[in-house]
Every structure is written in C-alpha cells, then in structure tokens.
Amino acid sequence: MPGFTTTIVHSDRQSNIEHGSLHKPIHANVAYGYDDARELAAVFQGRQKGYSYGRQVNPTVEALEAKVTGMEAGVSSICFATGMSAIGTMLFVLLRAGDHFVSSSFLFGAFAGRYHDLFNLRERRVGRGHGDCKCR
Predict the structure, then answer these.
(1) pTM strictly above 0.85
(2) Cα 67 to Cα 10, 14, 53, distances in angstroms
C-alpha cells in the first residue's frame, strides 16, 4: 500500500483528467462561455453543474479542495483566497448580530473592531496557555 505522501500526490489521477494530463491542470481563466444565456442562468442558479466566474469557483480550486479533503479523510473542504475571507465567511454563516465568540490573540489586529462596528459581534481574545488562559 502506498504511503500518505504518494497517495496525496497521485490522488487526482483517479478521475478523468483533461487532454491526457497526468495531473490536474491549472485553470487560470476568469470567465466561462455558454451557448446561450439560459444555460449560464442555470449554472448561476445551481440547476446545472458548471462554472460561471473564476473567482467564485473553478476547476483548480475544486481540485485543491478535493486534495485537502483526501488528506484530512474528510467529507468536504472549502478553500479561500485569504485567511480573512475564510474567517469572515465562518462568522457570517455561524453568527448573528449581538453574538459573542472567542478568538486567538494572534488573529489580525483590526479584526475585532471591524466586526464589532459593522456587525455588532462581540469578541473575546484568548492567549496561549494550558487551562489558565485569560480573556480580555
């Protein structure tokens, strides 16, 4: 049985790869074309599988998400372009105005004030420690 690294490196060879590539190619395009506007609308509405705009989802990001899912033996993964977009998405999905949350003292400094002012979220920062962490 191959080791972890070998399995991950070659994991994308399990699916159909375009044009005979040994590994998933990188897709750098931003826009995707369709035969008519109805087909594009179906993609936007999730009624048809496809890509509409590279910054939302594209084959390269989906390949990365599949690799991360495989590495973690998970169910699914979501990849973001920046850490702040990942944090923001998590907060928007899980929290509502007035909610409180705990974060690391190593989180980006302007984070707390911005989310409090814009969305009325309350943050408590926790530093390093083993059971004796202090919130501030």
Answers:
(1) no
(2) 10, 12, 22
